[in-house]
Amino acid sequence: MANSFYINPVALIVFALLFSVACTKNTSEGVRIDNNRITPVLADNFNLSLFSAAVKRGNMGKILEGEGPFTVLAPSDAAFNLAGYGAVTGIITANTDLMSALVSHHIMDGRLALEKLPYQFNKEFPGHNGQLYITHWIKGLDTAITINGARVLRSNIAASNGYIQVINRVLQPAANTTLADALASDETLTLFAQAMKVAGLLDTVATKGPFTIFALDNNVMKAQGYATVQQVNETDPATLEQFLRYHILRDRRFISDYILSADATDTNEQVMLDGNKVSIGLLADPGEPGGYSGIYLTGTGNTDNVYVQKQDLLAGNGVLHILSDALLLAQ
């Protein structure tokens, strides 16, 4: 009789059940890692390495690994370079609190699909560290989305706990509650701030607003004949008021707003606080065919164009830009 090997079917079933339970137990006791959270998605994107480093330096990883959902506005590496962070080493040695505040300003609660927003300028949204103003608009054949004046380059990168929106500039949280505070705290604007005070306009831009100010640094003020604080103080307040109201408007306007609202001739007009108009033209971007890098302004009395030296400096009640020259009314 040949040798035979008998397997008890009951024993086989019991063994299979025990093996299954053992596997389930090991799985349940293991650590489940979600590699599709916002933090690892940032780390896997080669164009977001500096923002990923900022998240780590600011100890914001745990927040962005939470359930959320969040919408993260991630500046590209080129945006960080533009802001003066040339390499990861510039971020990992930065002040931790500074990086935490910076990253927090780029985080919103909720999963926000930007292209589904209505077409409008500067709709206000709360961020984790300050307000954010989102514009959704059509320019030519393109639909543009900007946030605090920064252009969205790539939208709705999906993570399991939210969206990542790639932007072309690093957003800075408002350092001052009002534009009056912003002027007073900038050492390059002391003469302009004093002129605003003498003219009685500093109190105006300390109110709710919003306002946009095209400010003049000390060198420009000196060129206009206001070389010292004493000279400013000795000037007729009405003269200063007329001069300065042509540099203020009662609205919140980022530079990108002018680009998006320009007509087919790439020009625009802006009515200032004194009721007079300023002409605005667009500056072509040599690195982006059909794109624009900024604006220039021309007052009714200017013979040359006036350019923006610093743009989109956010305050709680508006935006501050600094010009290369004064806007002049026709004499």
Description:
The relative contact order is 0.11. The chain has helices at 9-29, 38-44, 49-57, 61-64, 77-82, 88-92, 96-104, 179-185, 190-198, 218-223, 229-233, 237-245, 255-261; strands at residues 70-75, 107-109, 120-127, 130-139, 142-147, 150-159, 162-167, 211-216, 248-249, 267-271, 277-284, 292-298, 306-315, 318-323. The chain contains 13 helices and 14 strands. The strands form two sheets. A seven-stranded mixed beta sheet has the order 2-1-7-6-5-4-3. Strands 9-8-14-13-12-11-10 form a seven-stranded mixed beta sheet. α2 (38-44) crosses α3, α3 (49-57) crosses α7 and α8 crosses α9 (190-198). With 331 residues, it is of the alpha+beta class. The longest helix has 21 residues, at 9-29. The chain folds into two domains: 38-167, Roll (FAS1 domain); 179-323, FAS1 domain, CATH 2.30.180. The radius of gyration is 28 Å and the shape is globular.
